[in-house]
C-alpha cells in the first residue's frame, strides 16, 4: 500500500489502543462525583445502579489484552507497511507469476525472513515427498489400478483441477470432459502427463483465418452437424462443405476427425467443448475460440502430476 495509506492505518490502530487505555484509566478512577457504594439514582425493574469500581480481574485482563496487542503489532506485520520485528509474513504477496513467487521466496530466504507458507510447504515436502516419489516410480497404468493411489490422485485433482473441470471431472462450457473418450491432445498416459506438465494453449482464429463470409456460416454449421450424423439441412450442408474445404480440413481433417497433434477437436463425434447447438457452433466459427490450460510442472512438481495423470487416466478406463 502507499505510504499515506500506511500512515493512516498506523494512526488509526495507535488511536484505538491509546483510546482504550485512556478509557480504562478513566473508568478505574471515580469520576462520578459520588462516594463508592452510593446510589447513582438509576432504578429499573427493581434493580438499582450503585457507584462500584470495576472488578479488579476485569481491569487486569483488559490491561493484559492491551499489552498483548501492542506486543503482537510490534512482532508481526499488522500496521500498514511495517514488517514486524520477526520479519514474518503469511505468504508471498502481490505476485502475478511463478517466477515472481520463486524470486520473492529466494529473497526472503536470503534475508532471513520467515514466510509461513514456504515453511509449511518445505515441511510437507520433507514428510510426504518420499511417498510421492515412490508412487512416481510406478507406471501410470499401474497406479490407475491402485485404489489408494487413485484416492490420492483424486484429492490432488480436487484441490487443483476441479475449479475448471468440475469435481466430477465432467467439465463445463470451455473446459473438456475428462471422463469420455474425446481427447483434444490424446488420452494415453504419456499424452495426459505431457498435457499436465507443460499445459496447453488452444486457439482457433475467427473463421479459421479463412476467407469465409458471414453469409456462409449457417451452411457451414449444417455441414459440421452432418459430420457427426446429427439432424441437419442436407442442401445447406452440401453448400457448407465448400466453405469447409476452403481450409477447415487442414486442422479438423477431411472428414472432421480432428488432429491431436494440433489439439483440433474431432467434429465427427458428439463431444463439444463449448457446446454443440447451432448458435454456439456458429459463434465458434465466427469469433473463434481461445483457451489455455496452465502448466503444473513448476506448481506441483512431476511426482504429484504423475499421480493426477493416473487418476485422470483411470476415469475413462
TrEMBL record:
It holds the Pfam family Cytochrome_CBB3. Residues 148-228, 235-316 form the Cytochrome c domain. Its cofactor is heme c. Keywords: Cell inner membrane, Cell membrane, Electron transport, Heme, Hydrogen ion transport, Ion transport, Iron, Membrane, Metal-binding, Oxidoreductase, Repeat, Respiratory chain, Transmembrane, Transmembrane helix, Transport. Pathway: Energy metabolism; oxidative phosphorylation. Binds 2 heme C groups per subunit. The keyword Iron-sulfur does not apply. The chain crosses the membrane at residues 6-28, 57-76. It is found in: Cell inner membrane. Signal peptide: none annotated. It comes from the Bacteria. The keyword Cell inner membrane applies. Belongs to the CcoP / FixP family. C-type cytochrome. Part of the cbb3-type cytochrome c oxidase complex. Component of the cbb3-type cytochrome c oxidase. This is Cbb3-type cytochrome c oxidase subunit. It comes from Ferrimonas gelatinilytica. The gene is ccoP.
Amino acid at each position: 500500500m502507499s505510504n499515506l495509506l500506511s500512515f493512516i492505518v498506523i494512526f488509526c490502530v495507535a488511536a484505538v489502543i491509546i483510546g482504550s487505555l485512556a478509557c480504562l484509566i478513566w473508568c478505574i478512577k471515580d469520576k462520578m462525583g459520588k462516594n463508592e457504594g452510593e446510589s447513582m439514582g438509576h432504578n429499573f425493574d427493581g434493580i438499582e445502579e450503585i457507584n462500584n469500581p470495576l472488578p479488579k480481574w476485569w481491569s487486569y485482563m483488559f490491561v493484559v489484552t492491551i499489552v498483548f496487542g501492542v506486543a503482537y503489532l510490534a512482532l508481526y506485520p499488522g500496521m500498514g507497511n511495517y514488517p514486524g520485528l520477526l520479519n514474518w509474513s503469511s505468504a508471498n504477496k502481490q505476485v502475478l507469476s511463478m517466477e515472481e513467487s520463486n524470486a520473492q521466496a529466494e529473497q526472503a530466504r536470503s534475508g532471513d525472513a520467515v514466510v509461513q507458507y514456504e515453511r509449511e510447504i518445505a515441511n510437507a515436502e520433507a514428510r510426504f515427498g518420499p511417498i510421492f516419489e515412490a508412487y512416481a516410480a510406478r507406471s501410470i497404468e499401474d497406479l490407475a489400478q491402485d485404489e489408494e493411489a487413485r484416492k490420492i490422485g483424486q484429492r490432488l485433482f480436487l484441490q487443483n483441477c476441479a475449479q475448471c473441470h468440475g469435481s466430477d471431472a465432467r467439465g463445463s462450457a470451455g473446459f473438456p470432459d475428462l471422463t469420455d473418450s474425446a481427447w483434444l491432445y490424446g488420452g494415453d498416459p504419456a499424452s495426459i502427463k505431457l498435457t499436465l506438465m507443460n499445459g496447453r494453449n488452444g486457439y482457433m482464429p475467427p473463421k479459421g483465418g479463412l476467407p469465409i463470409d458471414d453469409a456462409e456460416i449457417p451452411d457451414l454449421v449444417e455441414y459440421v452437424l452432418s459430420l457427426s450424423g446429427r439432424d441437419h439441412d442436407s442442401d445447406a450442408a452440401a453448400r457448407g462443405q465448400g466453405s469447409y474445404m476452403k481450409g477447415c480440413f487442414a486442422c479438423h481433417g477431411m472428414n472432421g476427425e480432428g488432429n491431436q497433434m494440433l489439439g483440433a477437436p474431432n467434429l465427427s463425434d458428439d463431444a463439444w467443448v463449448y457446446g454443440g447447438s447451432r448458435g454456439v457452433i456458429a459463434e465458434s466459427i465466427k469469433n473463434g475460440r481461445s483457451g489455455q490450460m496452465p502448466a503444473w510442472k513448476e506448481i506441483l512438481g512431476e511426482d504429484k502430476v504423475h499421480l493426477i495423470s493416473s487418476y485422470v487416466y483411470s476415469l475413462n478406463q
